[in-house]
Protein backbone atom coordinates (compact mmCIF):
# COMPACT_ATOMS: atom_id res chain seq x y z
CA UNK A 1 0.00 0.00 0.00
CA UNK A 2 1.22 3.52 -0.82
CA UNK A 3 1.09 6.43 1.57
CA UNK A 4 -0.27 8.70 -1.17
CA UNK A 5 -2.05 8.03 -4.44
CA UNK A 6 -2.36 10.75 -7.08
CA UNK A 7 -2.84 11.06 -10.80
CA UNK A 8 0.46 12.90 -11.30
CA UNK A 9 3.62 13.16 -9.23
CA UNK A 10 6.30 15.61 -10.38
CA UNK A 11 9.88 15.31 -9.11
CA UNK A 12 11.27 18.85 -9.03
CA UNK A 13 9.45 22.04 -8.03
CA UNK A 14 11.20 24.52 -10.25
CA UNK A 15 9.15 26.65 -12.65
CA UNK A 16 8.98 23.76 -15.11
CA UNK A 17 7.72 21.21 -12.59
CA UNK A 18 5.31 23.71 -11.09
CA UNK A 19 3.82 24.37 -14.52
CA UNK A 20 3.30 20.68 -15.22
CA UNK A 21 1.52 20.12 -11.91
CA UNK A 22 -0.59 23.25 -12.23
CA UNK A 23 -1.55 22.59 -15.85
CA UNK A 24 -2.65 19.04 -15.05
CA UNK A 25 -4.42 19.96 -11.81
CA UNK A 26 -6.36 22.83 -13.40
CA UNK A 27 -7.82 20.28 -15.82
CA UNK A 28 -8.99 17.91 -13.12
CA UNK A 29 -6.06 15.66 -12.18
CA UNK A 30 -4.77 15.30 -8.65
CA UNK A 31 -1.12 16.29 -8.40
CA UNK A 32 1.79 16.14 -5.97
CA UNK A 33 5.22 17.71 -6.38
CA UNK A 34 8.48 16.68 -4.70
CA UNK A 35 11.30 19.11 -3.87
CA UNK A 36 14.45 18.59 -1.81
CA UNK A 37 15.65 22.20 -1.93
CA UNK A 38 13.74 25.43 -2.59
CA UNK A 39 10.31 25.52 -4.19
CA UNK A 40 10.77 27.66 -7.29
CA UNK A 41 13.99 25.97 -8.32
CA UNK A 42 17.27 27.17 -9.80
CA UNK A 43 15.70 29.85 -11.99
CA UNK A 44 14.00 31.64 -9.13
CA UNK A 45 16.95 31.79 -6.74
CA UNK A 46 20.22 31.17 -8.58
CA UNK A 47 19.75 31.84 -12.28
CA UNK A 48 17.24 33.80 -14.39
CA UNK A 49 15.68 36.04 -11.77
CA UNK A 50 18.64 37.05 -9.55
CA UNK A 51 21.04 37.34 -12.49
CA UNK A 52 18.75 39.80 -14.24
CA UNK A 53 18.29 41.69 -10.98
CA UNK A 54 22.08 42.08 -10.94
CA UNK A 55 22.35 42.93 -14.63
CA UNK A 56 19.51 45.40 -15.14
CA UNK A 57 20.99 48.25 -13.04
CA UNK A 58 24.38 47.73 -14.69
CA UNK A 59 22.73 47.78 -18.12
CA UNK A 60 20.71 50.88 -17.26
CA UNK A 61 23.78 52.74 -16.01
CA UNK A 62 25.71 51.88 -19.19
CA UNK A 63 22.79 53.17 -21.29
CA UNK A 64 22.78 56.51 -19.48
CA UNK A 65 26.43 57.02 -20.37
CA UNK A 66 25.55 56.90 -24.06
CA UNK A 67 22.98 59.67 -23.79
CA UNK A 68 24.30 63.26 -23.67
CA UNK A 69 22.44 65.30 -21.09
CA UNK A 70 21.65 62.19 -19.09
CA UNK A 71 25.28 61.09 -18.76
CA UNK A 72 26.12 64.37 -17.05
CA UNK A 73 23.25 63.93 -14.61
CA UNK A 74 24.16 60.33 -13.72
CA UNK A 75 27.52 60.33 -12.01
CA UNK A 76 29.38 58.06 -9.64
CA UNK A 77 28.97 54.29 -9.69
CA UNK A 78 26.17 51.78 -9.18
CA UNK A 79 25.30 51.40 -5.50
CA UNK A 80 26.03 47.70 -4.98
CA UNK A 81 24.40 47.49 -1.55
CA UNK A 82 21.08 48.83 -2.81
CA UNK A 83 21.30 46.65 -5.91
CA UNK A 84 21.82 43.52 -3.79
CA UNK A 85 18.96 44.50 -1.49
CA UNK A 86 16.67 44.81 -4.51
CA UNK A 87 17.95 41.45 -5.77
CA UNK A 88 16.88 39.92 -2.47
CA UNK A 89 13.37 41.28 -2.93
CA UNK A 90 13.09 39.22 -6.11
CA UNK A 91 15.21 36.22 -5.18
CA UNK A 92 15.84 35.96 -1.47
CA UNK A 93 16.32 32.37 -0.35
CA UNK A 94 12.85 32.06 1.20
CA UNK A 95 10.44 29.83 -0.66
CA UNK A 96 7.43 30.21 1.64
CA UNK A 97 5.56 32.32 -0.90
CA UNK A 98 5.99 29.71 -3.63
CA UNK A 99 5.08 26.89 -1.23
CA UNK A 100 1.93 28.79 -0.26
CA UNK A 101 1.07 29.18 -3.95
CA UNK A 102 1.25 25.41 -4.44
CA UNK A 103 -0.99 24.85 -1.44
CA UNK A 104 -3.49 27.43 -2.66
CA UNK A 105 -3.52 25.80 -6.08
CA UNK A 106 -4.44 22.46 -4.53
CA UNK A 107 -1.12 20.76 -5.28
CA UNK A 108 0.43 18.57 -2.57
CA UNK A 109 4.03 19.52 -1.73
CA UNK A 110 6.31 16.77 -0.46
CA UNK A 111 9.59 18.17 0.84
CA UNK A 112 12.36 15.63 0.40
CA UNK A 113 14.40 13.69 -2.12
CA UNK A 114 12.29 11.82 -4.66
CA UNK A 115 13.41 8.62 -6.40
CA UNK A 116 11.68 6.22 -8.73
CA UNK A 117 10.84 2.96 -6.97
CA UNK A 118 9.69 1.09 -10.04
CA UNK A 119 6.93 1.74 -12.55
CA UNK A 120 4.49 4.48 -11.49
CA UNK A 121 6.04 4.62 -8.01
CA UNK A 122 8.10 7.29 -6.24
CA UNK A 123 9.66 7.17 -2.80
CA UNK A 124 10.33 10.46 -1.01
CA UNK A 125 12.96 10.61 1.73
CA UNK A 126 12.39 13.56 4.06
CA UNK A 127 15.01 15.53 6.01
CA UNK A 128 14.17 13.63 9.22
CA UNK A 129 14.80 10.28 7.54
CA UNK A 130 11.16 9.26 7.21
CA UNK A 131 9.77 8.26 3.84
CA UNK A 132 6.56 8.67 1.88
CA UNK A 133 5.65 6.25 -0.89
CA UNK A 134 3.65 7.70 -3.76
CA UNK A 135 1.70 5.76 -6.37
CA UNK A 136 0.76 7.71 -9.50
CA UNK A 137 -0.75 7.18 -12.91
CA UNK A 138 2.06 9.39 -14.30
CA UNK A 139 5.53 10.41 -13.06
CA UNK A 140 7.22 13.54 -14.41
CA UNK A 141 10.95 14.20 -13.98
CA UNK A 142 11.65 17.93 -13.77
CA UNK A 143 14.85 17.91 -11.73
CA UNK A 144 16.77 20.48 -13.78
CA UNK A 145 20.54 20.49 -14.07
CA UNK A 146 23.69 21.05 -12.02
CA UNK A 147 27.01 22.75 -12.84
CA UNK A 148 29.83 20.82 -14.47
CA UNK A 149 33.28 21.00 -12.86
CA UNK A 150 36.03 20.27 -15.40
CA UNK A 151 38.98 18.08 -14.34
CA UNK A 152 41.30 20.87 -13.21
CA UNK A 153 43.96 20.20 -10.58
CA UNK A 154 42.96 21.70 -7.24
CA UNK A 155 39.52 22.84 -8.34
CA UNK A 156 37.81 20.82 -5.62
CA UNK A 157 39.96 22.48 -2.94
CA UNK A 158 39.37 26.21 -3.51
CA UNK A 159 35.64 26.66 -2.80
CA UNK A 160 34.97 27.82 -6.32
CA UNK A 161 31.72 29.62 -7.02
CA UNK A 162 29.00 28.33 -9.27
CA UNK A 163 26.09 30.41 -10.54
CA UNK A 164 24.51 29.88 -7.10
CA UNK A 165 27.20 31.77 -5.18
CA UNK A 166 27.55 34.37 -7.92
CA UNK A 167 23.87 35.30 -8.09
CA UNK A 168 23.40 35.21 -4.30
CA UNK A 169 26.62 37.11 -3.54
CA UNK A 170 26.45 39.19 -0.36
CA UNK A 171 29.43 41.43 -1.12
CA UNK A 172 31.06 42.25 -4.46
CA UNK A 173 34.61 40.83 -4.54
CA UNK A 174 37.51 43.04 -5.59
CA UNK A 175 38.38 40.63 -8.38
CA UNK A 176 36.95 37.56 -10.07
CA UNK A 177 38.22 34.89 -12.46
CA UNK A 178 35.47 33.29 -14.56
CA UNK A 179 36.04 29.94 -16.21
CA UNK A 180 33.77 29.69 -19.24
CA UNK A 181 32.60 32.07 -21.95
CA UNK A 182 29.09 30.79 -22.42
CA UNK A 183 25.93 32.56 -21.29
CA UNK A 184 26.58 32.37 -17.54
CA UNK A 185 30.19 33.42 -17.95
CA UNK A 186 29.59 36.49 -20.09
CA UNK A 187 26.55 37.64 -18.09
CA UNK A 188 28.42 37.40 -14.80
CA UNK A 189 31.44 39.12 -16.34
CA UNK A 190 29.14 41.98 -17.33
CA UNK A 191 27.50 42.17 -13.91
CA UNK A 192 30.57 41.97 -11.70
CA UNK A 193 32.67 44.29 -13.85
CA UNK A 194 29.81 46.78 -13.79
CA UNK A 195 29.76 46.52 -10.00
CA UNK A 196 33.45 47.33 -9.67
CA UNK A 197 35.23 43.98 -9.67
CA UNK A 198 38.34 43.36 -11.77
CA UNK A 199 37.24 40.48 -14.03
CA UNK A 200 39.26 37.96 -16.01
CA UNK A 201 37.29 35.62 -18.26
CA UNK A 202 38.99 32.41 -19.46
CA UNK A 203 37.42 30.67 -22.45
CA UNK A 204 38.85 27.48 -23.94
CA UNK A 205 37.36 28.02 -27.41
CA UNK A 206 38.32 30.72 -29.88
CA UNK A 207 35.25 32.87 -29.29
CA UNK A 208 32.62 33.76 -26.73
CA UNK A 209 29.05 32.39 -26.76
CA UNK A 210 29.99 29.85 -29.48
CA UNK A 211 26.41 28.65 -30.02
CA UNK A 212 25.48 32.04 -31.55
CA UNK A 213 26.44 33.67 -34.83
CA UNK A 214 30.21 34.40 -34.88
CA UNK A 215 29.63 38.15 -35.23
CA UNK A 216 27.66 38.18 -31.98
CA UNK A 217 30.58 36.67 -30.10
CA UNK A 218 33.03 39.03 -31.81
CA UNK A 219 31.09 42.15 -30.87
CA UNK A 220 30.56 41.00 -27.31
CA UNK A 221 34.27 40.24 -27.00
CA UNK A 222 35.13 43.72 -28.29
CA UNK A 223 32.69 45.37 -25.90
CA UNK A 224 33.85 43.46 -22.82
CA UNK A 225 37.49 44.15 -23.65
CA UNK A 226 36.85 47.84 -24.26
CA UNK A 227 35.09 48.12 -20.90
CA UNK A 228 38.08 46.63 -19.09
CA UNK A 229 37.32 42.91 -18.80
CA UNK A 230 40.41 40.76 -19.43
CA UNK A 231 39.17 38.16 -21.93
CA UNK A 232 41.46 35.18 -22.59
CA UNK A 233 40.28 33.18 -25.62
CA UNK A 234 41.66 29.80 -26.68
CA UNK A 235 42.96 29.41 -23.15
CA UNK A 236 42.43 26.70 -20.54
CA UNK A 237 42.78 26.50 -16.79
CA UNK A 238 45.34 23.83 -15.83
CA UNK A 239 45.49 24.18 -12.04
CA UNK A 240 44.15 26.33 -9.24
CA UNK A 241 45.10 26.93 -5.62
CA UNK A 242 44.38 29.25 -2.70
CA UNK A 243 47.29 31.40 -1.63
CA UNK A 244 47.15 34.23 0.88
CA UNK A 245 43.40 34.58 0.62
CA UNK A 246 43.47 34.68 -3.17
CA UNK A 247 42.73 32.15 -5.88
CA UNK A 248 45.73 31.58 -8.12
CA UNK A 249 44.73 30.21 -11.52
CA UNK A 250 47.42 28.67 -13.73
CA UNK A 251 46.68 28.89 -17.46
CA UNK A 252 47.97 26.76 -20.31
CA UNK A 253 49.82 29.72 -21.82
CA UNK A 254 52.15 29.69 -18.84
CA UNK A 255 50.64 32.70 -17.05
CA UNK A 256 48.88 32.98 -13.72
CA UNK A 257 45.86 35.04 -12.75
CA UNK A 258 45.11 36.02 -9.15
CA UNK A 259 41.66 36.98 -7.91
CA UNK A 260 39.56 37.04 -4.78
CA UNK A 261 37.15 34.43 -6.17
CA UNK A 262 36.82 31.90 -8.97
CA UNK A 263 33.49 31.31 -10.76
CA UNK A 264 33.11 28.04 -12.67
CA UNK A 265 30.71 28.51 -15.59
CA UNK A 266 31.76 25.55 -17.71
CA UNK A 267 28.36 24.11 -18.55
CA UNK A 268 25.70 22.00 -16.87
CA UNK A 269 24.56 18.38 -16.80
CA UNK A 270 21.14 16.87 -16.05
CA UNK A 271 20.38 16.29 -12.36
CA UNK A 272 19.37 12.67 -12.87
CA UNK A 273 22.15 10.80 -11.03
CA UNK A 274 20.15 9.79 -7.95
CA UNK A 275 16.61 9.33 -9.21
CA UNK A 276 16.30 5.55 -9.16
CA UNK A 277 16.31 5.41 -12.95
CA UNK A 278 17.94 2.00 -12.81
CA UNK A 279 14.69 0.67 -11.29
CA UNK A 280 13.05 1.17 -14.69
CA UNK A 281 16.15 0.22 -16.72
CA UNK A 282 17.26 3.74 -17.58
CA UNK A 283 20.80 5.06 -17.19
CA UNK A 284 21.36 7.44 -14.26
CA UNK A 285 23.08 10.76 -14.84
CA UNK A 286 21.98 11.20 -18.45
CA UNK A 287 19.41 13.29 -20.24
CA UNK A 288 16.08 11.51 -20.42
CA UNK A 289 15.21 11.14 -24.08
CA UNK A 290 11.63 12.33 -24.46
CA UNK A 291 9.60 12.59 -27.62
CA UNK A 292 7.63 15.67 -28.73
CA UNK A 293 4.90 14.79 -26.21
CA UNK A 294 7.55 14.74 -23.42
CA UNK A 295 7.06 10.97 -23.03
CA UNK A 296 10.05 8.84 -21.96
CA UNK A 297 8.52 5.43 -21.20
CA UNK A 298 5.14 3.96 -22.15
CA UNK A 299 2.31 6.22 -21.06
CA UNK A 300 3.57 6.92 -17.54
CA UNK A 301 7.10 8.42 -17.40
CA UNK A 302 7.75 11.93 -18.70
CA UNK A 303 10.65 14.39 -18.61
CA UNK A 304 10.71 18.16 -19.07
CA UNK A 305 13.23 20.98 -18.79
CA UNK A 306 16.97 20.49 -18.31
CA UNK A 307 16.51 16.84 -17.30
CA UNK A 308 15.22 16.17 -20.80
CA UNK A 309 16.96 16.67 -24.15
CA UNK A 310 15.57 20.09 -25.09
CA UNK A 311 17.17 23.52 -24.82
CA UNK A 312 18.30 24.39 -21.28
CA UNK A 313 16.17 27.51 -20.99
CA UNK A 314 13.38 28.20 -18.51
CA UNK A 315 10.94 29.43 -21.12
CA UNK A 316 11.46 26.32 -23.25
CA UNK A 317 11.07 24.11 -20.16
CA UNK A 318 7.79 25.83 -19.34
CA UNK A 319 6.69 25.34 -22.94
CA UNK A 320 7.40 21.61 -22.54
CA UNK A 321 5.54 21.70 -19.22
CA UNK A 322 2.38 23.01 -20.86
CA UNK A 323 2.56 20.26 -23.46
CA UNK A 324 3.23 17.66 -20.77
CA UNK A 325 0.29 18.79 -18.63
CA UNK A 326 -2.08 18.63 -21.58
CA UNK A 327 -0.77 15.21 -22.63
CA UNK A 328 -1.28 13.87 -19.10
CA UNK A 329 -4.87 15.07 -19.11
CA UNK A 330 -5.60 13.78 -22.61
CA UNK A 331 -4.25 10.34 -21.80
CA UNK A 332 -6.05 10.22 -18.47
CA UNK A 333 -9.32 11.05 -20.24
CA UNK A 334 -8.67 8.86 -23.26
CA UNK A 335 -8.92 11.80 -25.67
CA UNK A 336 -6.75 12.64 -28.71
CA UNK A 337 -3.72 14.85 -28.11
CA UNK A 338 -4.83 17.44 -30.65
CA UNK A 339 -3.20 19.29 -33.49
CA UNK A 340 -0.86 21.42 -31.40
CA UNK A 341 1.38 18.39 -30.82
CA UNK A 342 2.43 18.03 -34.42
CA UNK A 343 4.57 19.99 -36.85
CA UNK A 344 4.61 23.30 -34.99
CA UNK A 345 5.49 21.72 -31.66
CA UNK A 346 8.49 20.07 -33.26
CA UNK A 347 9.46 23.37 -34.88
CA UNK A 348 9.33 25.30 -31.62
CA UNK A 349 11.27 22.65 -29.72
CA UNK A 350 14.02 21.94 -32.22
CA UNK A 351 14.47 24.78 -34.70
CA UNK A 352 12.85 27.91 -33.24
CA UNK A 353 14.32 28.25 -29.76
CA UNK A 354 14.59 31.92 -28.68
CA UNK A 355 17.17 33.21 -26.22
CA UNK A 356 18.36 36.52 -24.83
CA UNK A 357 21.82 37.03 -23.34
CA UNK A 358 21.67 40.06 -21.05
CA UNK A 359 25.16 41.42 -21.64
CA UNK A 360 26.23 44.81 -22.95
CA UNK A 361 25.48 44.62 -25.83
CA UNK A 362 22.50 42.33 -25.47
CA UNK A 363 22.36 39.31 -27.76
CA UNK A 364 18.92 38.06 -28.82
CA UNK A 365 18.53 35.15 -31.21
CA UNK A 366 16.07 32.54 -32.39
CA UNK A 367 16.29 29.52 -34.63
CA UNK A 368 19.32 28.33 -36.54
CA UNK A 369 22.59 30.08 -37.13
CA UNK A 370 23.80 30.13 -40.72
CA UNK A 371 26.30 27.36 -39.96
CA UNK A 372 23.72 25.20 -38.17
CA UNK A 373 21.25 25.62 -41.03
CA UNK A 374 23.82 24.47 -43.56
CA UNK A 375 24.78 21.53 -41.35
CA UNK A 376 21.08 20.59 -41.31
CA UNK A 377 21.17 20.39 -45.09
CA UNK A 378 19.24 23.57 -45.81
CA UNK A 379 20.02 25.85 -48.71
CA UNK A 380 20.23 29.25 -47.06
CA UNK A 381 21.24 32.83 -47.58
CA UNK A 382 22.14 35.09 -44.67
CA UNK A 383 22.00 38.87 -44.71
CA UNK A 384 22.85 41.40 -42.03
CA UNK A 385 22.45 45.11 -41.38
CA UNK A 386 24.10 47.57 -39.01
CA UNK A 387 21.58 48.57 -36.36
CA UNK A 388 23.39 51.86 -35.80
CA UNK A 389 22.29 52.90 -39.30
CA UNK A 390 18.62 52.63 -38.32
CA UNK A 391 17.10 55.90 -37.07
CA UNK A 392 15.46 54.29 -34.06
CA UNK A 393 18.78 52.88 -32.85
CA UNK A 394 20.75 56.06 -33.39
CA UNK A 395 18.14 57.89 -31.31
CA UNK A 396 18.40 55.19 -28.64
CA UNK A 397 22.07 55.85 -27.89
CA UNK A 398 24.98 57.86 -29.22
CA UNK A 399 27.45 55.74 -31.12
CA UNK A 400 25.00 52.84 -31.22
CA UNK A 401 26.88 49.66 -32.11
CA UNK A 402 24.89 46.63 -33.10
CA UNK A 403 23.70 44.49 -35.95
CA UNK A 404 20.82 42.30 -37.06
CA UNK A 405 20.88 39.26 -39.30
CA UNK A 406 18.44 36.77 -40.75
CA UNK A 407 18.99 33.32 -42.21
CA UNK A 408 16.58 32.49 -45.04
CA UNK A 409 15.80 29.03 -46.35
CA UNK A 410 15.81 29.92 -50.04
CA UNK A 411 14.00 26.76 -51.11
CA UNK A 412 10.94 27.58 -48.99
CA UNK A 413 11.37 31.35 -48.83
CA UNK A 414 11.09 31.48 -45.02
CA UNK A 415 13.31 32.72 -42.21
CA UNK A 416 14.87 29.93 -40.14
CA UNK A 417 17.05 32.06 -37.87
CA UNK A 418 17.59 35.64 -36.70
CA UNK A 419 20.08 37.41 -34.45
CA UNK A 420 20.06 40.90 -32.93
CA UNK A 421 23.01 42.42 -31.08
CA UNK A 422 22.96 45.83 -29.42
CA UNK A 423 21.55 47.92 -26.61
CA UNK A 424 17.88 47.19 -25.83
CA UNK A 425 17.38 44.46 -28.47
CA UNK A 426 15.96 41.82 -26.08
CA UNK A 427 12.32 42.36 -26.98
CA UNK A 428 13.00 42.39 -30.72
CA UNK A 429 13.48 38.65 -30.82
CA UNK A 430 9.81 37.74 -30.39
CA UNK A 431 8.80 39.13 -33.78
CA UNK A 432 11.48 36.92 -35.30
CA UNK A 433 10.24 33.96 -33.27
CA UNK A 434 6.74 34.41 -34.71
CA UNK A 435 8.18 34.58 -38.23
CA UNK A 436 10.22 31.41 -37.74
CA UNK A 437 7.54 29.34 -35.98
CA UNK A 438 4.82 30.56 -38.34
CA UNK A 439 7.03 29.98 -41.39
CA UNK A 440 5.94 33.35 -42.69
CA UNK A 441 7.12 33.81 -46.31
CA UNK A 442 9.66 36.61 -46.60
CA UNK A 443 7.56 38.14 -49.38
CA UNK A 444 4.68 38.50 -46.91
CA UNK A 445 6.96 40.08 -44.32
CA UNK A 446 7.38 42.99 -46.74
CA UNK A 447 3.84 44.00 -45.76
CA UNK A 448 4.59 43.96 -42.02
CA UNK A 449 5.43 47.66 -41.87
CA UNK A 450 7.67 48.65 -38.93
CA UNK A 451 6.88 51.80 -36.98
CA UNK A 452 9.18 54.80 -37.45
CA UNK A 453 11.44 55.68 -35.72
CA UNK A 454 11.98 52.40 -33.90
CA UNK A 455 14.74 49.82 -34.05
CA UNK A 456 12.22 47.45 -35.64
CA UNK A 457 12.80 49.34 -38.88
CA UNK A 458 15.81 47.06 -39.28
CA UNK A 459 13.33 44.45 -40.55
CA UNK A 460 12.68 46.62 -43.60
CA UNK A 461 16.42 47.12 -44.12
CA UNK A 462 17.08 43.38 -43.87
CA UNK A 463 14.42 42.63 -46.49
CA UNK A 464 15.81 45.32 -48.75
CA UNK A 465 19.28 43.85 -48.35
CA UNK A 466 17.89 40.42 -49.14
CA UNK A 467 16.52 41.85 -52.37
CA UNK A 468 12.75 42.18 -52.03
Lay out the secondary structure.
Elements: E1 4-11, H1 15-26, E2 31-35, H2 41-46, H3 48-64, H4 80-91, H5 96-104, E3 108-111, E4 113-116, E5 121-125, E6 131-141, E7 145-147, H6 163-167, E8 175-179, H7 183-194, E9 198-202, H8 214-227, E10 230-232, E11 237-243, E12 246-251, E13 256-259, E14 261-264, E15 268-270, E16 295-297, E17 301-303, H9 314-333, H10 343-350, E18 354-357, E19 362-367, H11 370-375, E20 380-386, H12 391-396, E21 403-409, E22 414-422, H13 429-437, H14 442-445, H15 458-466
Parallel strand pairs: 1-2, 1-6, 2-3, 6-17, 8-9, 8-14, 9-10
Antiparallel strand pairs: 4-5, 5-6, 7-15, 11-12, 12-13, 16-17, 18-19, 19-22, 20-21, 21-22
The structural domain count equals: 3
How many β strands by DSSP? 22
Cα gyration radius (Å): 24 Å
Helix content: 25-40%
CATH architecture assignment of the largest domain? 3-Layer(bba) Sandwich
Question: How much strand?
Answer: 15-25%
Q: Ends: how far apart?
A: 68 Å
Task: Give the count of helical stretches.
Answer: 15
**Name of the CATH homologous superfamily of the largest domain:** FAD/NAD(P)-binding domain
Output the CATH topology of the largest domain: FAD/NAD(P)-binding domain
Largest sheet report: 8 strands, mixed
- Round the mean pLDDT to the nearest integer and report it: 95
CATH class of the largest domain: Alpha Beta
The secondary structure category is alpha/beta
Pfam families: Pyr_redox_2, Pyr_redox_dim
Keywords: FAD, Flavoprotein, NAD, Oxidoreductase
Domain Pyridine nucleotide-disulphide oxidoreductase dimerisation: 353-459
Organism: Actinomycetospora aeridis
Amino acid sequence: MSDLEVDVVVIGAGPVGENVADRAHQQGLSAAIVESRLVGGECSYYACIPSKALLRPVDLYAATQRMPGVAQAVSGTVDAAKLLARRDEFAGEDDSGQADWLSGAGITLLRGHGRLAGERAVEVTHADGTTTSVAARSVVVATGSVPVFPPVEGLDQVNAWTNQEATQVKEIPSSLVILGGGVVGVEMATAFHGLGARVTLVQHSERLIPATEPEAGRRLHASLTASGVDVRLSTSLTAVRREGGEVVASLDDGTEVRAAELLVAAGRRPATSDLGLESVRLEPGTHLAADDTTTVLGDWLYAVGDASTGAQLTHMGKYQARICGDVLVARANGTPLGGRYSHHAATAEHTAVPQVIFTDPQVAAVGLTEAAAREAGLTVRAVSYELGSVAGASLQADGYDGFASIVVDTDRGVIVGATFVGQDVADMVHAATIAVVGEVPVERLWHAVPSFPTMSEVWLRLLETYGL
